[in-house]
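Re-run requested by the PI after the first attempt was lost when the workstation crashed. Everything re-entered from the original request form. Ligand of interest: manganese (II) ion.
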Amino acid sequence: MRRTVRIGTPNELDSFALVAVVARASDDQFTVSSFTPSVIGGVALPQSYGIEWAKRQGLSSTVASSTVLRSFATTDVTLVSGGDALLNSIDEWRRIAASAVRSAGNRSAALILATADVTDAHSVGRALGEGALLASYEFSDGPNDELSEFVVIPVGTLPTVEFHDALDAGCREGAIVGDAVNWAKKLVDTPPGQMTPKELAKRALRQMETHSTVSIASWAESKIEDERLGGLLGVSRGSAQAPRLVYATYDPDPSAELVHVALVGKGITFDSGGLSLKSGEGMMTMKTDMSGAAVVLAVLSAVAQLELRVKLTVIAPLTENLPGHRAIMPGDVLTIRNGKTIEVLNTDAEGRLVLADGLSLAVEASPDAIIDVATLTGAQVVALGDEVAAIFSSDDDLAAALMAASDVSGEALCRLPLFDNYEAHIESDVADMKNIGKPGKAGSIAAALLLRRFTDGLPWAHFDIAGPGRCDAVRGYYTKGATAFSARTIIEYLRSMQL
Ligand code: BES
Ligand code: MN
Ligand code: ZN
């Protein structure tokens, strides 16, 4: 099933399999907007509901909790909690939309939106579109032919033309973002034997085909050798699959001086650890290790469709990390694109090796800022769990802009320090640096400090999404499996950087 989003009118309500109505909690009752039709699909709908009844149905003051009122006709109604305060966090609208589509399953769904509940129709439209689509994701191998709608139906006093247009534009933009993120989730969820570097590059090229402002190339192994990407080549040596590097640019207006951001994504299509082999348990989720690449490619696709006025360079080094007979060995030294050398003491710290090449290439594009995204360290999961990403930045303005974007996207971030004293942890006797820090000590920081050495002092931010890159159960608008975490924050950041 593939879901589409649009806005509609109250006279269509009876055509949906499910209609969601927001109910607000007070001390003794739940109330729906007085503009809600009193009969929907043959179901008579009171305006208020006793709190005891609501509690028994699972409807609470927790935003997006819900209860379905089954119909004898074709249209069920679900009451979705809008909480006890006026909705003001945009993320709550994403969760409300997600709750509606979950109640609908594969069926069509509509949401009645009381205009009085909305102060910023554009933002609410975006949140509803995103939330509905993100929650509608299901992994399937083949094409999703079956279509189902999510329709937002404003009711209330005089929805003005401005309100209508802002809501409509918001829904469209939210749908673009939701679709792009779901595309990334599908790449990540595809079994690793299928999602090889070659296949991932192919899917990226296919996705960008329709975007005329995007140029994209897939570098084959010989080109990667010619370009001296020693980190990527080193990691790929243990695998029978050749590496790839996807290099893409987006420029909607070459005659203008747009803000230029380079995005680099870790694309390990499977991380076994290499000769420093992971445990069986540790490998179970390692098809997720290409999330950074999927995220930056999804950002590119969304930005192109939204026609944002920024310039992008997107770089995704892609390889497996396997312990084949030609694999790099602990003690090997690799020379990265920019000439710096790294002693590989643990082949499982491979992400930083391929990112070092990716960041070196990014620097050569002379962007105004560089952002990389990676499922980089187990230490990030220990520090922040699976709902918060770590962000590191060499630039306070860039960090602040990304934190502000995360407030809008609902993707939680925590800034960790690039603590200079820990540079000592990655000093090597035989090379410019080694690829691991001190065992059990600030592993995420050591990795970030290594990456910083490849950014040439440019404003740079690094997202470590090792934990939040996956979700182990349905939560709000997140589905089980890949999350493509940080894509929506970066899109929002780029929206804010438009000229
Ligand atoms: N891809 C892993 C990090 C990871 C761990 C992501 C768990 C998601 C969940 C990365 O390549 C890795 O193996 N890092 C090592 C580095 C260590 C050897 C210095 C780690 O964190 O254990
Ligand atoms: Mn690893
Ligand atoms: Zn990895």
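Saved to the shared folder this time. Residues 120 and 228 are 50 Å apart (CA to CA).
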